[in-house]
Amino acid sequence: ETGVTQTPRHLVMGMTNKKSLKCEQHLGHNAMYWYKQSAKKPLELMFVYNFKEQTENNSVPSRFSPECPNSSHLFLHLHTLQPEDSALYLCASSQVRVTDYGYTFGSGTRLTVV
Amino acid sequence: SQQGEEDPQALSIQEGENATMNCSYKTSINNLQWYRQNSGRGLVHLILIRSNEREKHSGRLRVTLDTSKKSSSLLITASRAADTASYFCATEETSGSRLTFGEGTQLTVNP
Questions:
Q1: Quick check: A103 and B103 CB within 8 A?
Q2: What is the pLDDT of residue B3?
């Protein structure tokens, strides 16, 4: 375990479903991130939260809705997704001012949209 | 937009050999980081080198940074089968705190 826990590990959902991904860290970090990893593509930054405030939305479609209730928890709410949204969704955390330890990633949620 | 580009895309070596991966980037950076990912898992941070550093070591890892050429290399010495993974470079740009990843190098170490 890295200290960043993502649930569920696997998720299969229909295009009309609503689901949520959860990320939790107790490392004392104050920045949290959502990344999308699709096959044969670089990791894509989706959202950035610093001290619970969203500081970046990287042109992500509104069918993805993030929520950060506190510095330790991050959610990604999913609604009416498309098959091309199938990917590995990775959560990461760090200090706002980066340290030599970089980002700590969770193991990811493998999402399949059918 | 993609910032880091790794080279080669895939590398296959024998156990005990050294593995060298290169990364090029486009903009000014605060630091460059290398990560490792085993198949379908999360990324693990390996090493961070700041823009005012030229070389850094951590165990069997050696990282160099040439800001004039906007490039970095990761050397893994005396490789082991357990080093088989994808390796990514990531840059933190001076314009913001976001970390931007390259496409990665798939390293296979044959026993």
A1: no
A2: 61
Q: Distance (Å) from the C-alpha of residue B68 to the closest C-alpha of chain A?
A: 22
Which residues touch A24 (CB under 8 Å, ≥6 apart)?
Answer: A4, A5, A6, A72, A73, A74
- The CA distance from B23 to A92, in Å, is 22
Average pLDDT, chain A: 92
Question: Considering chain B, what percentage of its residues have pLDDT values greater than 70?
Answer: 95
- Residue range A50-79, pLDDT digits in tens: 888 888 888 899 999 999 999 999 999 999
Give the closest-approach CA distance of B91 to chain A in angstroms.
Answer: 11
Across the interface, whether the CB atoms of B40 and A4 are under 8 A apart is answered no
Tell me if B53 sits within 8 A of B65, measured CB to CB: yes
* C-alpha Rg value of chain A to the nearest Å: 13
Instruction: Give the dihedral sign, CA A82/A84/A85/A88.
Output: positive
Note the pLDDT tens digit of each residue in B18-51.
999 999 999 899 999 999 999 878 899 999 999 9
Helix-, strand-, coil-residue percentages of chain A, each rounded to 5: 5, 55, 40
Q: How far apart are CA B53 and CA B17, in angstroms?
A: 26
Beta strands in chain B (DSSP E): 5-7, 10-14, 19-24, 29-37, 43-50, 55-58, 61-66, 71-76, 85-93, 99-101, 105-110
Question: What is the pLDDT at residue A52?
Answer: 82
